Each structure stands twice: as structure tokens, then as C-alpha cells.
Amino acid sequence: KTAKDGATSKVYAKFGVEIYAAAKQGEPDPESNSALKFVIERAKQAQVPKHVIDKAIDKAKGGGDETFVQGRYEGFGPNGSMVIAETLTSNVNRTIANIRTIFNKKGGNIGAAGAVSYMFDNTGVIVFKGTDPDHIFEILLDAEVDVRDVTEEEGNIVIYTEATDLHKGIAALKAAGITEFSTTELEMIAQSEVELSPEDLEIFEGLVDAL
């Protein structure tokens, strides 16, 4: 249960940051901010509670006494593995200190800004049940969605889009009658992979879990 609760909290936190960012970059009203509207739809699909969504929007409006700042911290794990941690905090100094401590205690090394992010591509990822990637590719192409790849994996269609076209891709699929998605999110996808021994994998997972 503890592991499940931890995973759920990470999902809530991830959407909290995304909702905050979308609301900050435009109007904090989903009816006039399509990016925010799509993020909220995805959050609801991931069963994020309404109070978590409302709190993120309230932060973006400047609700409460605290000011929240987005941050990105980069570093290295065992055997050249790379880690990017994105944060939303009201106390930047405390957050930096906490992240530095976690890297040091969990077998990693924190790096400078840009140390590893150039090795990742910010990518839109859409996953749903299906077995005909060619047909899906045509739908997205007709809608002028910038698609990197469409594959079929174990009965699921997996779509990779340019980050800026994630919402456009979701809208095109919905217009084609596809409404049930298991994944609709932005992911930092590594351009290459490193192989970790069982021992290094345990260290890496411990570092990521702590972050």
C-alpha cells in the first residue's frame, strides 16, 4: 500500500506542476485556455482529485500568501544514468538543498543546468487500446499533427508527438471517435539507454523514489 500511495502522490504532483504551468502561461480559466483544459482532462482521466486540480490553479492565480516557482534539476546516477527532477516550490533554497542531499545520499551526483537535458527529448506520449498503427498515423497526418512515431505494443497503440502537438493529437483522436486513453502526457525521453546491473538498478530506483 505504501508503494502504491507513493506512486499516486507522484502522479498528483506531476499533474499539479503541469496544471500550474499551463494556468501560468495563459488564463487560469480552462474555458479560455485550451492547454489548461486538456491538462485538466488528462488529470481527471488519471483520477486526480478535484481539490488537487483546484489547488494548482489557485496557486497560479496567486491564491494564498506563497509564491510558487518552477525548477528543473539535473544529475547523474550509477553507471552514467541520467536524472531530471522537475519541481514546484515556495522555497527554492530549501528545495535545492533537499535535492542536493538526496543525490549525495542516494549514490548520485547533481549537475549544472543543462548537464543532461540535452540528452532527452520532451515528447508527447499517447497510449490506448488498438492494433492498427498505420490507420492512426493517417488520422494524425490528416490533422497535421507533428508525429515522431506510431507503434503497436502488446495490443496498445503508442504515439510519440512533438511536445507542442500533444493536445492537438488528442483532439484529432477524439474527433475520430477514440476517447479512452491509458496515457496522455509529456515525457522527457532519453535519446539513448544505459544498461544497469541489478545492484546499480537498485541504487537508481532508490534515487528516483527519493526525489
Structural class: alpha+beta
CATH architecture identity of the domain at 120-190: 2-Layer Sandwich
CATH class of the domain at 120-190: Alpha Beta
Mean pLDDT: 89
* Rg, alpha carbons: 18 Å
Residues in helix, %: 40-55%
Q: Write down the overall geometry.
A: globular
Distance between the amino and carboxyl termini: 19 Å
Keywords: Cytoplasm, DNA-binding, Transcription, Transcription regulation
GO cellular component, one term: cytosol
Domain TACO1/YebC-like N-terminal: 1-63
Protein name: YebC/PmpR family DNA-binding transcriptional regulator
Structure keywords:
YebC/PmpR family DNA-binding transcriptional regulator; single chain; TACO1_YebC-like_2nd/3rd_dom; DNA binding; Alpha-Beta Plaits; cytoplasm; 45% helix; 7 helices; 24% strand; globular; 3-stranded antiparallel sheet; alpha+beta; Integrase-like_N; 211 residues
Structure explained in plain terms:
Residues 72-211 form the TACO1/YebC-like second and third domain. InterPro entries: Integrase-like_N, TACO1_YebC-like_2nd/3rd_dom, TACO1_YebC_N, Transcrip_reg_TACO1-like, Transcrip_reg_TACO1-like_dom3, YebC-like. Pfam families: TACO1_YebC_N, Transcrip_reg. Belongs to the TACO1 family. Keywords: Cytoplasm, DNA-binding, Transcription, Transcription regulation. Helices cover 45% and strands 24% of the residues. It is α+β, with helices and mostly antiparallel strands and 211 residues long. Among the domains are: 2-61, Arc Repressor Mutant, subunit A, CATH 1.10.10; 120-190, Alpha-Beta Plaits (2-Layer Sandwich). It has a four-stranded antiparallel beta sheet with strand order 5-6-4-7, with helices on one face. Strand 5 and strand 6 (156-162) form a beta hairpin. Helix 1 (2-25) runs antiparallel to helix 2 and helix 1 (2-25) packs parallel to helix 3 (50-61). The chain is globular and about 50 Å long.
